Amino acid sequence: MSGLLKNEWLKLANNKKLYFFLLAVAAIQFLPVFMTLFLKMRTLNGQVYPLTMFGVLVSFVLPLLLLILVAETVAEEHTAGLLALSLLHPVTRGKVIAAKAVFFFTVILVFLLFAMLFGYAVGTLLFGWGGGFMLRGTAFPTGKGVAITFLSYVTAALPQFAFCQLVMFLAVVINSSAAVAGIAAGIFIFSSMLMLLSDEIKPFLLTSYFNTVPAVADFAIGKTGVFAQFSFPALYALVFFLLTVLVFSKKDMLF
Fold first, then answer.
1. Looking at the predicted structure, is the pLDDT value of residue 81 above 70?
2. Which distant-in-sequence residues (6+ apart) come within 8 Å of 162 by Cβ?
3. Most CB atoms within 10 A, among 34, 99, 172, 197?
């Protein structure tokens, strides 16, 4: 497993899209600066700044970047026979898929933590650290504010990972990276539209779980049952992971 993970990271390090993706994530964190300067949006301080564009990052930008990355990594490698080469080593097909799943989860965490730290840096340099942390009309001590921000970013990895598992399943079934990216983008856009049209269907849509700030904030003020909201993304990820392993284990591989 460690060898497979190391190979995945080496391939990603040589992929120019990684640096474009990091640049896109960084660019999102600069948007409040321009909105403050030109639209007179009120930006509080560096403590709150990393959460200013959090909803946009996890609800739109990151899913679109991830579906491109997953489609290319899985579908194109399968078409080129690179997945088959992994099976020349003494590993099972299940371990190959598991290694990719772990790899994608760590990539998501890297993107999210990079965005958080970059947000803190930009916000503090331009607006100062500030004297307190205010979220949804509630003031929190600085330490608790940092904890809320950190937990919001870290817990957002789970629904993003669940979405990755869906894209990975499509990539194993379809093989064409362009088709996978198009179908996954269509599912994402359709789900986002449904989420706006009906509150009744929202609990069954993965996109409604992307923004984890409300759940973490509720937990911070003592509301119970908040983390039940993470059970659906976890189940979603597990189901599509198992389906991917099942399909991949029965698929003919070209060497």
1. no
2. 206, 209, 233, 234, 236, 237, 240
3. 172
